[in-house]
Amino acid sequence: MIEQPDWLRLQKALTIEAEQGFTDLMGRQYRFSEFLCLTFGKLPASLSSDRDDIPQQSHRDRWQQLAQEFANYPNLDMEARQSLIAQTRRYIYQLQQLEAGGEGERGGERGNNISNPTIKTPQSTIQNPKSPIVSEVSKLLAPGIDQKLSEVAEIGPRRADKLARLGLYTVRDLLFYYPRDHIDYAKQVQISELQAGETVTIVATVKSISCFTSPKNQKLTILEMQLRDNSGRIKFSRFYAGARYASRGWQESVKRLYPVGTMLAACGLVKESKYGKTLDNPELEVLAQPGDAIESLTIGRVVPVYALTEGVVANLVREAVAAAMPATHHLKDPLPSGLRQKYNLMELKDAIANIHFPPDSDSLQASRRRLVFDEFFYLQLGLLQRQQRAKQVQTQAIFAPSGELIEEFYKILPFELTGAQQRVVNDILDDLQKNVPMNRLIQGDVGSGKTVVAVIAIVAAIQSGYQAALMAPTEVLAEQHYRKLVSWFNLLHLPVELLTGSTRVVKRRQIHAQLETGELPVLVGTHALIQDPVNFNRLGLVVIDEQHRFGVEQRAKLQQKGEQPHVLTMTATPIPRTLALTIHGDLDVSQIDELPPGRQAIQTTALMASQRSDAYDLMRREIAQGRQIYVVLPLVEESEKLDLRSAVEEHQKLQDAIFPEFQVGLLHGRMSSADKDRAITKFRDKETQILVSTTVVEVGVDVPNATVMMIEHAERFGLSQLHQLRGRVGRGAAKSYCLLMSSSKSPDAQQRLKVLEQSQDGFFVSEMDMRFRGPGEVLGKRQSGVADFTLASLVEDEEILILARQAAEKVIEIDVNLDRLYLMKQELKLRYERLMGGAILT
Ligand code: ADP
Ligand code: MG
């Protein structure tokens, strides 16, 4: 895998996996465990070469063993994962040391035994010799930023070894290891004095503890504790969401952290509950054993709480950070002072000092603001740099923005474009006249009319003598685009073909031949477009619908079928602005923020099981008026089979028991494409009045006569997905309904469904979705690549993100390569990779 061992990358992969809670992170191409397994599958040349000072046989064994252990990683429980990673980190760290030693002048002093290397390093040198004020004693004694932790006097090799388990090797690592939270011991109160609404700290003893999987939700783990001080008792719970906490091993390990009798500090918001006062998901910290005096670093002040790992206790990190703190004197701020002033940002060294040990909550806020700004800023800087560099590429495909064909097309269109559509068409036509390949994303809510906008771009391509390809994620959708294009292009006498997995061989060959000669100007299709040995004669435009359903790889492959073709991508999943800037920050984005006229609001109602007969009455009335209905069942993640059964069973029930007088169709992912086609065609042709389906209908299916969307177990879907499903109705002029059936009485579920009752704005819905479920979930599983921020929140920090984007735009405008901003350039290099999270696994 790795020719030259890339220790840094390996360490980073290990660090990120640990930071993410040992979830076997998914990278672009590999899972974490696969990446590690592949890496250890091949011993790097430097370790296998004959060097008498290294016992290479043991390396070979060790690498083989690690490869096997990582192959088995997915089967390990949390503790075993943690320990394997800790052990691997130490080993890699040693190898790294060894390599570094092998190249430098210290080569001769290398130890023989790899598992216990003696590492000598030069004395720390005092940095920043140019500045005259540096001669202050404190600065003279301060450790250097890049100094190894083992060399910092107050830390030393033994503690440095422990800190290495957290991925912390240098002073810089430690300074930038921001605390997860703070506990304010100044707000310490007695249990009997608790007042609802206040954030407080109590110091008390564990009276009882239990940790278990929620009986109602397998993915939720609950830790329940009772604490006591001499004034009273309090009970509280902490919640851990995610399958990884469900293991007994993990639950037991939590209980071991807080055995009965332990003295704890618990800090959090006081709430009134059914059982009296409680703390809301508090931060916990184990203090000394009962009877001992409480540590002075913690009492009476705001203390940082760090993410810890096996064998590394809170005070170890705190003391190490305190020891590293004087090094902030050497920290140069990569942001020029003018920029800091403009955006009202604290200086970096103060921000770092305050984020760890804030004197008060105002300075904590100010330092957080600065550091959040940095997280956003460097990501935007990287994205904008990439965007600018992409624009340095040239394309031959320069299109004429107007001409007979486009005129003709406007004439045959049965409607006028909306203002928003026209605006986006203009954006696109502008792009197409440049000799720089277009890279534009159209974002528009379901039904906003993205297809016609893309078709205008296709017509412009044809008119200019180029071919165009339109790729969709499913056969159903590709087929639908194809039909629409045929209906329009027939009138213009332009041939169009469809290529999918089920296209017959003879047809396939014919299509290939016509593409190569250039006879065929437009091809619509699925992944088959990139899988087949398809050669275009002169591909000038690539359109990708529902782009988030394709990987970067697949998009690139289609692009490679032409020479720097223009690329237009579309998405009907509106996402919050913050998320859009984070993941599409390097694209030009156009919004279609207006629906075609005449659309009526879709009346959305959340119904409980007891109201089911009302729902069926409504459905009957609609069918009596010639309308049609979708009934959608959730995708049960754990078991596709279960999923299938629920759709099949529901179909049976509706057909036999509830609506025997109507025809009920069935559509699910396990059907052959021919059967799927048949089901959709029958529905489209009104042979079936009701279509029972899994979420396959989510994407793009367009049957304007359907007026009711009934969604079973609506509480199991994300809001954005529900919104997508709802978009299947309300496509004609008739009034439409969306019925959200749920059996959950939980206030959270009800509140979420309320959002849909109240709003039909996809952006608002996705914003709320992000608030409820977090940014990673809004896009669903298929898209990873949401940057991995330490402090920044896409929900809370929109204002800072916008400023950071502005600042980055200014900088890139003036100096794309950051040649005159050397410190910033360095910092960007350091941070960008890290921010992109799992992306580095590939
Ligand atoms: P989406 O943006 O969800 O892909 P479509 O492109 O499928 O939406 O368009 C939805 C429907 O609206 C289609 O039937 C389309 O023909 C129609 N449509 C698009 N633009 C207009 C318009 N300006 N006026 C009226 N109907 C339109
Ligand atoms: Mg569409």
- What is the level-2 CATH architecture name of one domain? 3-Layer(aba) Sandwich
Instruction: Note the beta-strand portion.
Output: 15-25%
Q: What is the end-to-end distance?
A: 10 Å
Number of strands: 20
Protein name: ATP-dependent DNA helicase RecG
Keywords: ATP-binding, DNA damage, DNA recombination, DNA repair, DNA-binding, Helicase, Hydrolase, Isomerase, Nucleotide-binding
Catalytic activity: ATP + H2O = ADP + phosphate + H(+); Couples ATP hydrolysis with the unwinding of duplex DNA by translocating in the 3'-5' direction
Family: Belongs to the helicase family. RecG subfamily.
Descriptive overview:
Keywords: ATP-binding, DNA damage, DNA recombination, DNA repair, DNA-binding, Helicase, Hydrolase, Isomerase, Nucleotide-binding. InterPro entries: ATP-dep_DNA_helicase_RecG, DEAD/DEAH_box_helicase_dom, Helicase_ATP-bd, Helicase_C-like, NA-bd_OB-fold, P-loop_NTPase, RecG/Mfd, RecG_dom3_C. Residues 112-129 have a biased composition (Polar residues). This is ATP-dependent DNA helicase RecG. It catalyses: ATP + H2O = ADP + phosphate + H(+); Couples ATP hydrolysis with the unwinding of duplex DNA by translocating in the 3'-5' direction. The protein is α/β, with parallel strands linked by helices. Among the domains are: 4-100, no CATH class; 187-300, Nucleic acid-binding proteins (OB fold (Dihydrolipoamide Acetyltransferase, E2P)); 404-592, P-loop containing nucleotide triphosphate hydrolases (Rossmann fold, 3-Layer(aba) Sandwich); 603-759, Rossmann fold (3-Layer(aba) Sandwich), CATH 3.40.50. 41% of the residues lie in helices and 16% in strands. It contains 30 helices and 20 strands. The strands form 4 sheets. The protein has a 7-stranded parallel sheet, with helices on both faces. The chain has a 6-stranded parallel sheet with strand order 15-20-19-16-18-17, sandwiched between helices. The chain has a 5-stranded antiparallel sheet with strand order 4-3-2-5-6, covered by helices on one side. The longest helix has 30 residues, at 361-390. The protein is globular. Residues 102-136, 290-300 and 837-842 have low confidence and may be disordered. Magnesium ion binds at residues 450-451, 545, 572, 700.
